[in-house]
Amino acid sequence: MPAMPRIPAITRKQVATFLRPRPPDSHKGRFGTVAIIGGASGMVGAPLLAARAALKLGAGCVHVGLLADNAPSVDILQPELMLHRARTALRLPKLDVLAIGCGLGQNDAAQQILQDALKLNTTLVLDADALNILALRQDLQTALITRKGANVITPHPGEAARLLGCNTESVQATRAETARELAKRFHSTVVLKGAHSLCVTGDGKIAVNKTGNPGMSSPGMGDVLTGMIAAFIAQELEADQALLLAVHLHGAAGDAMAKQKVTIGMTATEVTEWARWLL
């Protein structure tokens, strides 16, 4: 059998070319508006982590739509964020990108919110429970495939298995083929997360990310990555560029922490801070 073609690695030099200096007369309106929707009862922290990452990676305005009945009205640690009920966030004007799924849950209310989000023309970043709901509902898969806006999906191996109707072991044994199949089937830019995450762009090109380390196996890391992707899309990067930059930078931030001997107990909040510094 012929050898499988080598998958090119994302490089720092490559993703740095996506960035442009900010003009002297900059204002927040030039850097886009992000909405993060999720946060069912007991999971409000997930969208807040994503939103804080979006803010600290350069988005001009960041809104958070929360599902929990007892959701806070302000993020005390990050009061620059604007908190709303989930349905209010769907109706925001001049929305550049909507990230949905972080702590969303899978109940009827969550499914209705996702269904309504799929009707928007804005770029969508789908993570976590948004992907789990998609796996359950063929009608929402069709809505995703046929919508006009760009789609980014960010499954870990378990979510990828549910989306494709297989098991996690199969996903891990054929990661490149799985990532390509997800991109093709769901008309999306894809990152299949894990050690050496695989990214598939809208034109079907695949790349492997070599940054990151086992210390990043902790809660909230995926939420931070979702917020970073959304931030770069809001700042007018194409979805493919935003994904490649965010995935590489996210892992590089974790590596920077590992160099400081933080390999156990690394937190997603700290990765956000290091990612901002590296950017």
Write the layout of secondary structure elements.
Layout: H1 12-16, E1 33-38, H2 45-56, E2 61-66, E3 82-85, H3 86-90, E4 97-100, H4 108-117, E5 123-126, H5 129-136, H6 138-146, E6 151-153, H7 157-164, H8 168-173, H9 175-186, E7 189-192, E8 198-200, E9 206-208, H10 221-234, H11 239-259, H12 268-278
Parallel strand pairs: 1-2, 1-4, 2-3, 4-5, 5-6, 6-7
Antiparallel strand pairs: 7-8, 8-9
Helix pairs in contact: 2-10, 2-12, 5-6, 5-7, 10-11, 10-12, 11-12
What does this structure look like?
It is a single chain. The protein is of the alpha/beta class and about 280 residues long. Helix content is about 45%, strand content about 15%. The chain is built from twelve helices and nine strands. A nine-stranded mixed β-sheet has the order 3-2-1-4-5-6-7-8-9, with helices on both faces. It is globular. The relative contact order is 0.16. The mean pLDDT is about 95.
Give helix % range. 40-55%
Largest sheet: 9 strands, mixed
Radius of gyration: 17 Å
Order of helices and strands: HEHEEHEHEHHEHHHEEEHHH
- Please count the helical segments: 12
Which range does the strand content fall in?
Answer: 5-15%
> Quick one: how many beta strands?
9
Low-confidence stretches: none
